[in-house]
Amino acid sequence: MRSLNVSLGTRSYPIHIGGGLLSQAALVTPHLRTPRVAIVSNETVAPLYLDKLAAPLRAAGVAVAEIILPDGEAYKNWETLNRIFDRLLAERCDRGTTLIALGGGVIGDLCGFAAASYQRGVPFIQVPTTLLAQVDSSVGGKTGINHPRGKNMIGAFWQPQLVLADTDTLQTLPARELAAGLAEVVKYGLIRDLPFLEWLEAHMEALVARDGAALAHAIERSCRNKAEVVAADELETASEGGRALLNLGHTFGHAIETGLGYGQWLHGEAVAAGTVMAAELSRRLGWLHADEVERVRRLLARAGLPVRGAALGAERYLELMGHDKKVIAGKLRLVLLKRIGEAVTHADAPRADIVAAIEACCA
Amino acid sequence: MRSLNVSLGTRSYPIHIGGGLLSQAALVTPHLRTPRVAIVSNETVAPLYLDKLAAPLRAAGVAVAEIILPDGEAYKNWETLNRIFDRLLAERCDRGTTLIALGGGVIGDLCGFAAASYQRGVPFIQVPTTLLAQVDSSVGGKTGINHPRGKNMIGAFWQPQLVLADTDTLQTLPARELAAGLAEVVKYGLIRDLPFLEWLEAHMEALVARDGAALAHAIERSCRNKAEVVAADELETASEGGRALLNLGHTFGHAIETGLGYGQWLHGEAVAAGTVMAAELSRRLGWLHADEVERVRRLLARAGLPVRGAALGAERYLELMGHDKKVIAGKLRLVLLKRIGEAVTHADAPRADIVAAIEACCA
């Protein structure tokens, strides 16, 4: 088992990474305020892993409620969130109850926001079962739901007590979702960790083949990068750089997700295509060479990811990007690459260059 | 103008109290992140005070959106909250937009929770226009909405940047609502400020007659008490005493509000009847004399408040109280009076005494 710590003062928490962690109740119980949990999962993950997590907890004397939601980004909305609240209230769960998110990013975001707002806040634990959730969404405290007008528009910063990343769960993950997770893994290399990017270029086939050691290394390195960024800028308030850099490719990607309707593209797929757009725009600003854009595109393609955006039209992209949370006072602030391995936030990209970058990278 | 500070480290903020503050844009503008606000108000308050607040802000160069909601506790729910989100997104309000709550406790709770969760948190300012909101709900960062199964079950702790209590707005407040605010004023005397309680006993008629100087004193003293309690226990995590003491009468009161359906009794009215129940239970535990219970009842009655609870039956009370957020691990934790001027939290009141206290204090 590999372990690291997210350093956030009184809100610090450990991340454990390894095989078979799901069933180790002793990793969970020290973090419970009272011996009572509600596990939130979905119809896909629950049949595979819920009992593996719940049975040892029950054997350890913990009362376990199970809340099973439908699967998919389309359900990351108020109605589903309210199903969690309904059950917590019906079960008379109090402020000492810990919510446990067992699933991917959607479950983590929903369960985390439920924990943030149920009775103005209860503890929660992340047990991510997708690569994307293990390397990204389970770490850092971002929680929330979508709104018809925009993704993740309603939510909270709410840090978990513990993240338990069981690498065994990745063996049942659909190939498309594994690839989606790799988009975020590649991101850490691109924005702040060139040696890791080079390691990924040497090991991408091992990752796609789900080699356990390679996955564990990639998850740990990704979490260390994310933990460092989050520790320095917990609430994404840094005016330059900081946590916003984690959004490389995300502003373009959100446009794809929103424009097509949630659930058509996976988040990581949209991020991959968005990352190529960001690289192409960086080239137009004179920061990257054409062969560096190609280097980014090639690595993402080897991960099995789309490297061209959906053909929404540049104007529609800009309209959808205008709703992004990264907009401050009307300016479109983008995360771009100053060079491979170093991202920056930039609010002054000429509109014509943004349009050209989008058009150059669309299907 | 009287001013005091709520000391919460980086989340500290000032409270200004006085006449005519609403129109002083210079008090507001230093607290804005960008020159853009959305004022959230209701159909009763907006015709009276919205222009008084908005016009000077616009004259100072601030872009002002207006979000007018229906009036009443019955609207403190997800649907109304979502109307705020819809408008904020339609107006493309970004993370720098400050939400301003102009109204009573319902508007403050709704607007505050909208601010806590819109794009994972934007700044907000409280401009309370009821006595209850000025002395209680606008200070301390509790925000939220009701759920059919319980009051304030969904919400967040989210501190404002500023509280502006314009005492002039109390001149248009219905008498019943003025009285409801006085229930919380009396509370501060009962739980931690005997000299203030004695002052209230000497000045209750002046307060009911809306004497400006008396009101300003009562508001300032109430806010100072609340600010001290909140500063010591921001997130209500103290296991004994702390912020929970502010809930004197509230657990019984919530049962009345929920049992009758939100909006039948005003919150402060339910708290007044609940406070008498808490005093009566304290007597049964040997902490108060019968004449001290009578002292509490008399002061609340002089404020024009109900001092007997709704006749729901003791069993229904207990059932409804079991859903209260003050329940930790299944035990009913109540705020009671060790003596006049000193409250304690107590989880060991015999059920028979709770039943007897409820029955003794019901209509």
UniProtKB/TrEMBL annotation, chains A, B:
Pfam family, one: DHQ_synthase
Predominant subcellular localization, coarse grouping: cytoplasm
Domain 3-dehydroquinate synthase N-terminal: 67-179
Protein encoded by which gene: aroB
A single Gene Ontology CC term: cytoplasm
One GO process term, biological-process aspect: amino acid biosynthetic process
Classification via HAMAP family: DHQ_synthase
Pathway recorded for this protein: Metabolic intermediate biosynthesis; chorismate biosynthesis; chorismate from D-erythrose 4-phosphate and phosphoenolpyruvate: step 2/7
Role of this protein: Catalyzes the conversion of 3-deoxy-D-arabino-heptulosonate 7-phosphate (DAHP) to dehydroquinate (DHQ).
Residues the entry annotates as binding Zn(2+): E184, H250, H267
Membrane-traversing stretches: none
Record key words, sorted: Amino-acid biosynthesis, Aromatic amino acid biosynthesis, Cobalt, Cytoplasm, Lyase, Metal-binding, NAD, Nucleotide-binding, Zinc
Biological classification of the source: Bacteria, Pseudomonadati, Pseudomonadota, Betaproteobacteria, Nitrosomonadales
Domain 3-dehydroquinate synthase C-terminal intervals: 181-327
Signal peptide: none
Catalytic activity as recorded in UniProt: 7-phospho-2-dehydro-3-deoxy-D-arabino-heptonate = 3-dehydroquinate + phosphate
Obligatory cofactor(s): Co(2+); Zn(2+); NAD(+)
Compartment(s) of residence: Cytoplasm
Protein's name in the database: 3-dehydroquinate synthase
Similarity-based family: Belongs to the sugar phosphate cyclases superfamily. Dehydroquinate synthase family.
